[in-house]
Amino acid sequence: MKKIINTTNAPAPIGPYNQAVLTGNMLYTSGQIAIDPQTGKLFKGAIEEETNLVMNNLEAILKEAGMTFEHVIKTSIFISDMNNFGAINKVYASYFNEATAPARETVEVANLPKFVNVEISAIAAKDV
Q1: pLDDT of 19-32, one tens digit each?
Q2: How far apart are CA 121 and CA 78, in angstroms?
Q3: pTM
Q4: CB 77 within 8 A of CB 123
Q5: Into which CATH architecture does domain 2-125 fall?
Q6: pLDDT, tens digit (0-9, with 9 covering 90-100), for 43-97
Q7: Where are the domains of the chain?
Q8: Are 75 and 32 in contact (CB under 8 A)?
Q9: Which family would the database say this protein is a member of (predicted)?
Q10: Helix (H) or strand (E) holding 73
Q11: Do the Cβ atoms of 74 and 20 come closer than 8 Å?
Q12: Residue 40, pLDDT score
């Protein structure tokens, strides 16, 4: 059975979806973008700051589900400009232990919701 995970410490969904779904020991997060959860406003600024906000939003969802970044087994990163990869990767890397970092793909796309520069989703597993 699935359990819906939502927290006020991450942006409220902007469509017909939830922040995450927990089924068994698996957590599937929706893609997070740089929306400030306190104001609901889109953040526009340096790509490093945008990526940091995205990762903080993911962290809040993981925490609500009783998990941390150590539980993440897979991420998907969507970026609007591959020239931002280095900066995004540097911020992303600061949230993980390199030795136990999750599997990942990074894809450049034509557009993202609200025309943001980066969107990241995660799959996490909690030991039973």
Answers
A1: 999 999 999 999 99
A2: 9
A3: 0.95
A4: no
A5: 2-Layer Sandwich (3.30)
A6: 989 999 999 999 999 999 999 999 999 999 999 999 999 999 999 999 999 999 9
A7: 2-125
A8: no
A9: Belongs to the RutC family.
A10: strand 72-79
A11: no
A12: 93
Buried b / exposed e along 70-87 (16+ C-beta atoms within 10 A): ebbeebbbbbbeeebbeb
Rounded to 5 degrees, what angle do the CA atoms 14, 17, 21 make? 135
Q: 95 vs 2, 3, 12, 68, 114, CA distance in Å? A: 27, 26, 22, 10, 25
Contacts with 127 (C-beta within 8 Å, 6 or more apart), sequence order: 25
Task: Give the amino acid at 76.
Answer: S
Q: How far apart are CA 6 and CA 8, in angstroms?
A: 7
What's the token pair of residue 69? 């970044």
- For the chain, where are the alpha helices, taking DSSP H only? 47-64, 85-93
CB 32 within 8 A of CB 121: yes
